[in-house]
Fold this protein.
Amino acid sequence: MREVCVIGVGMTPFGKFPQRSILDLGREACLEALRDAQVPAQRIEAAYCGHARTGRLLNRECGIGQSVLWELGISGIPISSVGNFCASGSTAFRDAWLSVASGLYDIVMALGAEQLTARGVKGKPLTSDGVELLTVMGFSPPTYFAQIAQRHMHDFGTTREQLALVAVKNRKNACGNPRAQYRKAVTVEEVLKAPMIVDPLTLLSCCPTGDGAAAAILCSREMAARYTARPITVAAAVLKSGEYQRRREITTLDGTVRASREAYERAGLGPEELDVAEVHDCFTPAEILHYEDLGLCPKGEGGAFIASGATQIGGTIPVNPSGGLISKGHPLGATGIAQIAELVWQLRGQAGDRQVEGARVGLAHCAGGFQESLELAEVASVTVIILKA
C-alpha cells in the first residue's frame, strides 16, 4: 500500500441555510479544497461523495457528487455516492484513501454534503418510513444515549454536571471557530436548566442538525511533493460495522473499540501519542464514552476525565477544538470530512484561536446508525482516521 497525503481541504460554514441548495454548498467546499491544494479541477481522477439522506432520483440526490462536480467542470471520471449513516462523509474519505493507497488512482477528491433545513426534517425523526418495532417502543438516538448516560451514572458515578461539561467545553471551543453553527458560550447551569429531551439529556446536551459541506483532496506521497511542502499523511483509515453479540456492556461501543485499536496498530502509535482528536459527540454522554472506547482514559473514568480539564484546549489531549457536533453542527454526510478539515488545519497550525499548540498527530472518529434488536443496539458504522503532520 502506498502512502497517501491530504493536500487540500475546504468547508462551508455549518448552520441553517434554507436558501442554499446542496449543490451550492458542495461547490463551495470543493472549490476551497481545490484552491487549498493548488490543484486544477481537471486533475482529479475520481471522487467519492458522502450524503446520508440519499435516494431521491428526480432532484439528483442519488448523484450529488456527479451534480456538484459537473458544475465545476469535472466529468467523465468515476464518481461514487456513499450513504453510511452519520459516517457517510468519513466513509467516502476512507474509500478515497483506499483508492490511492492501492495504486488505482494518484489524486482524488472526497466530498461530504447535506441540506436538511430545506428538506423540512425539523421535528421529524431521521428514521425509516416504515413501522419498526423499536421505533414504536420509543427507540431513537436521544433515548439510546440517555439510557447509556443513566447506566454510566449508575455504574461509575458520572454526574449530570460532568455530562454538561462536554457541552460547555465544546461551545467554548466553537467561539473560536467562524464556521461553527453555535458560537455562544454556555454554563453548566444553563445546560442543566435547558428544556428536557430525554432524562438526563437536555436540549443543550444534543447536537443540532443543519446544512453544510466539506471536501478533501488526497494524493500519493510522490504527487504531494509537486503541490505542497507540508502534506498531511493519512496514517490509518479504518471502517468497522457493528458486531452482533448477545451479551454486551451498554456503556461500551464495541465498533469504536475495534476500529480504534486497528487504527493505532496501522499508524504505529498509541492513544497517548495523540495531540488532538475530533470525536462524534452527537450527545454529551457520547463524548464521554468515546474517551474510554478510544483509550484516552480508563473505562468508567470519562466523567472525571472531562472534569479534570484534560480534554480542553491546553489539556493533555484536546478533544473537539472545532466545537464538535454539539456546537459546530452536524449536517450528517458532511460531518466526517469536516473533522478531517479541522485536523488538517490543526496539524498545519492554521486553526486560529482554537489552535492546539504543537499538534502533530490527530484522530478523527465518526459513528453512525444503529443495528437494533430487543437485546442490544450497536452502532452500525464507525470510522477512525489518524493523520500525521
Summary: The radius of gyration is 19 Å. The domain at 4-119+210-232 is CATH 3.40.47.10 (Peroxisomal Thiolase; Chain A, domain 1).
